[in-house]
Amino acid sequence: MYVEPSWNSLVERLKSKDAKRIYVVGVPDSGKSTLARFLSETFAVLKPTAFIDSDPGQSTLSLPTTISAGFYSTGSKEPQVILSRFIGDTSPQHKQAVILLALHRLTDKMQEKGADCMIFDSSGYVSGQDALEYQLSVIEMLQVDVVILLQRNDELQRLGALLEKFGTITIEEIPVSQAVRPLSMPMRKEKRESKYRAYFENQEIRVLDVQNLALCGSLPERFTVQSMRGRLLAFCDRERFVIAMGIARSFYESDKICICQAPDFDLNQTAFLHFGDIFINTDFKEEHISKRQLQKESRN
Ligand SMILES: Nc1ncnc2c1ncn2[C@@H]1O[C@H](COP(=O)(O)OP(=O)(O)OP(=O)(O)O)[C@@H](O)[C@H]1O
Ligand SMILES: [Mg+2]
Asked: What is the pTM of this model?
């Protein structure tokens, strides 16, 4: 990681104002995750720090389709605890309420653990009015005290102008590093697929009795082979934090049997079975199948 001179002066300003909640925002490929990691590691030297990754696409702490928080106790180089919430999609666009709730729950948990400083990484979903409203809602809900706008030119000017009106948020404009290496859409997809592969490749196909679990998320209208095979699932505890992820093979609704590829986990600790919107095939390739297409297939 190349540490830009502007980052060091940024750290000094953040320290002197004792910033507690710092949100990093920028277009895709602006170096958000790298700067957020640098800040987390820098602050973790001094005090208990949380790194909260709110990007369900290019997640850095856990699998794509989740958002996560990592807790660093003072002096630690790696997060000791990682908590994840399942979003079920790789884009925040259609999951805004789910993400807002997840961020709220994750920040509460990090606060409980004693995090004195929280650094939020964000997705590159910033263009257009819907995205602007989304960013505004997240930043307001989190009660952020510093927003770092990572910009090449003035692409975040509208967001900055909106945030200024709160009167309570310090806005830091930081130029995008020359060291950023952009990723094409196919490369992004491949990166996600390598994460699915690493997690699932050596996991067994399990036959799970899920009659004691509550089903939530994107349940299909009908449980057919087409609507279930490959569907990404999350097994979650009573607080809806992820215990394990699974790839469905089939689901027998009447018997409440779920056949899926998943790591070994404690089903007794599991309260929710959360259905995702993404499908992963046997080569760990990601498929986004629209509901309409599923309905058409199930009629055939
Ligand atoms: N300061 C830096 N020094 C070295 N490499 C960097 C630096 N900043 C970014 N990169 C590299 O550029 C690429 C993109 O950076 P990064 O993932 O931080 O951007 P991002 O804005 O978070 O992207 P995304 O929109 O996909 O979330 C990564 O491969 C990262 O390692
Ligand atoms: Mg990123």
From this structure: 0.94
